[in-house]
Amino acid sequence: MKKFILILAALPTIAAFGQSQKALQYPETKKGDVVDTYFETKVNDPYRWLEDDRSAETAAWVKAENETTYAYLDKIPFRDALKTRLEKLWNYEKIGAPSKEGAYTYYSKNNGLQNQSVVYRKDVLGKDEVFLDPNTFSKDGTTSLGSLDFSKDGSKLAYSISEGGSDWRKVIIMDAKSKKILEDTLVDVKFSGISWRGNEGFYYSSYEKPEGSELSAKTDQHKLYFHKLGTAQKDDQLIFGADQKRRYVGGHVTEDNKYLVISAANSTYGNELYIKDLSKPDSPIVTIVDNFNSDNMIIDNQGGKLFIRTDLKAPNKRIVMVDVKNPTPENWQDFIAETENVLSPSTGGGYFFATYMKDAVSVVKQYDKNGKLIRQIALPAVGTASGFSGKKKEKTLYYSFTNYTTPGTIYSFHSQAGKSAVYAKPKVDFDGANFTSTQVFYTSKDGTKIPMIITYKKGMKLDGKNPTILYGYGGFNISLTPSFSIANAVWMENGGVYAVPNLRGGGEYGKKWHIAGTKTQKQNVFDDFIAAAEYLIAQKYTSSDFLAVRGGSNGGLLVGATMTQRPDLMKVALPAVGVMDMLRYNTFTAGAGWAYDYGTAQDSKEMFEYIKAYSPVHNVKPGMHYPATMVTTGDHDDRVVPAHSFKFAAELQEKQTGDNPTLIRIDVKAGHGAGKSVAAMIQENVDIQAFTLYSMGFKALPK
In the CATH scheme, what is the homologous superfamily, with its name and number, of domain 24-88+431-700? Predict the structure, then answer.
């Protein structure tokens, strides 16, 4: 396997590189005179006009910025070599875990460079056929498959599609045996699963279509509907959400088809929980949890006995059981008690599987239906295991295992014998034995110990000259656990270091860890990230001249805040689909639901001042030498609207001092990331790595 080695440019080349930046001309971005007042403080918003994603002016600005960015990227001499290697490494067969539905076994497969993975099925004789090919949904690969759910007997299917990466979906209903479309497509579905009630119809969730732009206008009243087969969507039954205004509502039917479970929330943390007996046509919706102070989910039932995963009185989560006749929290009894590690449970084969995070890596334990520990499951190595789920009658379950040097491998698991076997191991042109992952614990500003996994090629010298990507998230109770990435593999082949700290705000150590990075403690997250960079520099993995910081969505906010607070710390900043205007994030789409983590500028004067002090758009200052920056977003992102990135890039281009470039790369017909075509993902990673290395002074990849 051919190895690519990066060559550091000589000083004259670096000087020439710096001179080229001074000649970089950005498109002119007009400034308006919009001023908002928060608690008697006036705040200018000169680029408010970029929030109008339907205007010809915004479209022209996007076109001009992309022309500038791609003209710059086109001149990077090793960009084509990176693309060749990425495509070669990406081109391997990827198979998903199978699932039995009716008379068929279904699974997904991508031959290598297909834009979207294809759904196949196998009959009882073992004959395979293509069942659903999302690559035929659109010519350019920008329409993707979303949710997919079969009726109880497997005879019918409902699946959702996303066009251009939007969170707005369409739902198509099909006869599974003949693959014929059964009726009109459902439209305007958003943030929704699909869950069948028997074979008669299914539940789904959506908002009323907003006034104004469907990509940026506020959506804050979610509703649960039931669609009966053979009827028009306009006649769908409204189940929940008419009188009780909730931002997020979901419903699912238990495996035995006896109960409808409803979850309702106003934020990304904390939910009400309800249940309805489907065996009684006129049964009421019964309240289990009537507040938003805890996260709760029914994961299984045995007749009228419910099993609920909750963090109520258990910050690291536990499973409780309760009789459906008296389901409120005062009647809950521990089934699997809370431990010192965070619990993520699943069920299958009549068993419960407790997957714990221990310092961000997986430990899995198997329990029987009475809560008795059967075994701790032996995993292939240290890393991330996920799956262990299926129907109660299935004795063979499946799980995936991965880490930073091990491509995702699917294992079968015999639930009674407790034996694992390789089901699908990818053949990747990458030898993980040549690389190492090391977990370290470093100290943040306030003395808190933070774990970080650092991955790189064996034999690498700690001389401070290694190109390094520091990747972070730090929010919404989301945990970053080890996983393999083709793009990161190429980065490390080229001598790069990839480092991932588990920042506060995430879920790696439970609710307390999450809360420690929210609202007026949000600065902890940025401090943790800054301390990670300082650790990598102090230990000579890298230096400020060879460090890039990267993150997406809430991680884009992380990068934006870090680079404006400590522009001296890194050479390159790569904020993706970031929440950059923290004073107005809650006015777009479902953004108001993020207030549990962020608070809002309208809450109080204290909250306004705190948020404004770190909001990336509001902390770009003239005369500063900011790192080389490439902002990335999608023009159809209706989760974190692209105006966040547009306004941040405009501020940087206006106020940047010095030679470092400030570019924005805007994917057209792309959203927040889900469903992006393989071709688009490859090109985006090529451009990010090429920009990063070029900005660090690297001039070539050897032939």
Answer: Alpha/Beta hydrolase fold, catalytic domain (3.40.50.1820)
pLDDT of residue 674: 63
**Residue 542 corresponds to which amino acid?**
T
The interaxial angle of helices 79-90 and 678-695, nearest 10 deg, is 140
pLDDT band at 9 (very low <50, low <70, confident <90, very high): very low
**How far apart are alpha carbons 610 and 561 in whole angstroms?**
13
Radius of gyration of the chain from its Cα atoms, rounded to whole angstroms: 25
Per the listing, tokens 């707005």 go with 168
* 672 counts as catalytic: yes
* pLDDT tens column, 45-78: 999 999 998 899 999 999 999 999 999 999 999 9
Query: Distance between CA 514 and CA 525 in Å, rounded?
Result: 10
Give the contacts of 58 (CB within 8 A, at least 6 positions apart): 49, 50, 52, 646
pTM of the model: 0.92
Distance CA 363, CA 619 (A): 42
Instruction: Output the 3-class SS for 557-597.
Output: HHHHHHHHHCCCCCCEEEEECCCCCCCCHHHCCCHHHHHHH
Report the distance separating Cα 489 and Cα 456, nearest Å: 9
Q: Catalytic residue at 553?
A: yes
| Residue 127, Cβ density class (10 Å: 0-12 exposed, 13-18 middle, ≥19 buried) | exposed
- What is the helix (H) or strand (E) element at residue 523, kind and residue range? helix 523-538
DSSP for 275-341 reads EEETTSTTPPEEEEE-SSSS-EEEEEEETTEEEEEE-TT-TT-EEEEEETTS-SGGG-EEEE---SS
pLDDT for the residue numbered 671:
62
What's the DSSP call for residue 603? T
Distance CA 173, CA 651 (A): 46
- Candidate list 108, 216, 400, 553, residue with the active-site label: 553
**Pick from 686, 698, 696: which is nearest to 74 by CA?**
686
Residue from 206, 672, 677, 695 carrying the catalytic annotation: 672
Q: Which residues contact 492 (CB under 8 A, 6 or more apart)?
A: 435, 455, 456, 457, 498
**pLDDT averaged over every residue in the chain:** 92
Under DSSP, the state recorded for 445 is: T
Please, are residues 635 and 665 in contact by the beta-carbon 8 Å criterion? no
Quick: pLDDT tens for 530-576.
999 999 999 999 999 999 999 999 999 999 999 999 999 999 999 99
Identify residue 295 by its one-letter amino acid code.
D
Note the pLDDT tens digit of each residue in 256-288.
999 999 999 998 899 999 999 999 989 999 999
Question: Domain coordinates of the chain in residue numbers?
Answer: 24-88+431-700, 92-136
